[in-house]
Amino acid sequence: MSEEFEDLRLRMDERFRARPINEFLRTRVAALELDRAELTLEFTPDIDNGSGTIHGGMIAALADTAVACALATNFGGKMGFATSNLNIHFLQRAKSDVRAVARIVKKGSTICVGQVEVFDAEGQLVATVTTDFVLTSSRARE
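Request: output the structure for the sequence above.
Response:
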């Protein structure tokens, strides 16, 4: 990871610790590159859906945050944006910690599209996600 992205990762982790939802989920930024982010989510009893697996909403939240982090690599985390669409396909239940690998596949002047793959601790694909984000200020690097 380059120094630029390591600094951004540290700032994101600090920001995550300041938000109760991220501390609750134990979301961590594992890696950042231009248009790419990898986040982890620790499986705890708090996010168990009652059947020994991670609640799907928690996986969706992780995927959404992962794309936001990937998008933020374009402008150092200094542009406003909001999720306008999130489509998730659950492929199997997650019974362990999970890792979301997000990448930006389209950078427009107003709408950006990201894709995420979520894997369990054994490397099995748990979910695939596509998201749209609306840029609310400035513009992404083309």
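The chain has one domain: 3-135.
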